[in-house]
Write a structure and sequence with these properties.
The protein has 3 helices and 13 strands. It has 312 residues and is mainly β. It has a 4-stranded mixed beta sheet. It has a 3-stranded antiparallel beta sheet with strand order 1-4-13, with no helix packed on it. A two-stranded antiparallel sheet has the order 2-3. The longest helix is centred in the first third of the chain and has 11 residues. The N and C termini lie close together (7 Å). The relative contact order is 0.23.
Length: 312
Amino acid sequence: MRWIPGGTFLMGSELEGYPEEGPPHYAAVDAFWMDETQVTNADFARFVAETGYVTVAERPLDPTEYSGVNPALLVPGSLVFRQTAGPVDFSDWRNWWSYVPGANWAHPRGPASTVAGRELHPVVHVAWEDVTTYAAWAGKELPSEAEWEFAARGGLEGAIYSWGDDPAPEGRILANVWIGEFPWRNLKPAKLQRTTPVRSYPKNGYGLYDMAGNVWEWTTDFYRDGHPDDAAHPCCAPSNPRVTSAEGSYEEGEGLARIPRRVIKGGSHLCSAERCLRYRPAGRQPQMIDSSMSHIGFRCISRTGPSSRHRA
């Protein structure tokens, strides 16, 4: 784990096209320890082996919780990204996401897939219950959105990316993100088009890897469409802010289940400069707590210091 010194910082952004990141405001966080990398398949496998834990994606679904859904579809599985043959209609995410029965952390692309040889890749297909159970087992916690963003900035006040303002310094790509035209043309070598092993890209100023790209990361805050606007000056910065009420986090729309959503941060290997420029410290989006996907993982923090179970 790495020591994050804490302090007051400018959180959020005014980037055009990403209104959920505004308004920029000051926040203060206390010092804490943070995992140097995202939790890996090897880490999660050890947790499962020691506890016998079964993830949400591996459990049968209760038809009473999903009214209007064909019961035949309510089988254990998870959402898996599917690269398309050509350009698609972006109004429907189902053009590039598929619910795959049997997909889970140990079988990330479906029953025939495996994590063998991918032990140092970040674990994916983990829902909120999965990550909090792991954190408790490890003697850790999940970060708040403010803690995560402060750590991601690595001491660079107001910078666009976790490494500065230049998206590709001297032509170097510093995060595992989509290069090309999403979701059909990926210009990276095939072995780099999904997740990559942790520590494959340079660390930030606090010694943290993959605070941009690779996989999205869970935080404890319930989602809101934007930030509060009552801290325009450092003198007024709230201390250790958190959004602890699920009210206001639900996705609005007729027929939608009232499932709380929490903030995920950091972007993933599916983010691109043209479609999803969210691999920035200020980037954020909501995720239903009962759902897992092939591009969402996590890392933990500790406010008391590393314990005997903390990863080396």
